[in-house]
């Protein structure tokens, strides 16, 4: 069955370099590898420089991003991982707390694309992760890049300058 189509914003265009940090939990290695490939391709399409770090699980992703936000000079972050429903309520805890952690960081000013998949089974994760299918890793990278362009538009600083063009944001 075909999914509902949705509108995708044009990729932002940057005049100044962009530095992204991908934080991935490779708990499900095949899924994580697909997500990272999609995120790297999206970042490359916008000319962004990418660093990658791995953490043990989805719950550690917000902590790693918080540390990087305080201790480094990244423009934005891409959170990647996968949580598959199991037989216990641990699934709910991991989904809710990793999402809440990323949301709180975003509300504090961190520019994050959330690509942590929360699925019922491995097959759903594969469909969402594959770059030639739903490409949620690429979508998360684009979300971070759009937030960076928006921040540059509003702040007028190297970590934020941009204006709207017919091709999308230029920052």
TrEMBL record:
Keywords: Riboflavin biosynthesis, Transferase. Its EC number is 2.5.1.78. GO terms for molecular function: 6,7-dimethyl-8-ribityllumazine synthase activity. The active site is at 90 (proton donor). One of its GO terms (cellular component) is cytosol. GO terms for biological process: riboflavin biosynthetic process. It comes from the Bacteria. Belongs to the DMRL synthase family. NCBIfam families: lumazine-synth, PRK00061.2-2. Catalyzes the formation of 6,7-dimethyl-8-ribityllumazine by condensation of 5-amino-6-(D-ribitylamino)uracil with 3,4-dihydroxy-2-butanone 4-phosphate. This is the penultimate step in the biosynthesis of riboflavin. This is 6,7-dimethyl-8-ribityllumazine synthase. The lineage of its organism: Bacteria, Pseudomonadati, Pseudomonadota, Alphaproteobacteria, Rhodobacterales.
């Amino acid at each position: 069955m075909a999914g509902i189509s949705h509108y995708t914003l044009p990729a932002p265009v940057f005049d100044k370099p962009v530095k992204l940090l991908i934080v991935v939990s490779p708990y499900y290695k095949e899924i994580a590898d697909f997500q990272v490939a999609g995120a790297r391709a999206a970042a490359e399409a916008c000319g962004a420089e990418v660093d990658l770090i791995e953490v043990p699980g989805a719950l550690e992703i917000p902590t790693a991003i918080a540390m990087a936000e305080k201790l480094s000079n990244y423009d934005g972050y891409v959170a990647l991982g996968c949580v598959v429903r199991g037989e216990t309520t641990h699934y709910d805890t991991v989904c809710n707390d990793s999402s809440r952690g990323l949301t709180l960081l975003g509300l504090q000013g961190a520019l994050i694309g959330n690509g942590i998949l929360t699925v019922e089974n491995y097959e759903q994760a594969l469909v969402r992760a594959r770059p030639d299918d739903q490409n949620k890793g690429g979508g998360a990278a684009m979300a971070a890049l759009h937030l960076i362009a928006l921040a540059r538009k509003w702040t007028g600083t190297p970590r934020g300058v941009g204006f709207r063009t017919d091709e999308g944001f230029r920052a």
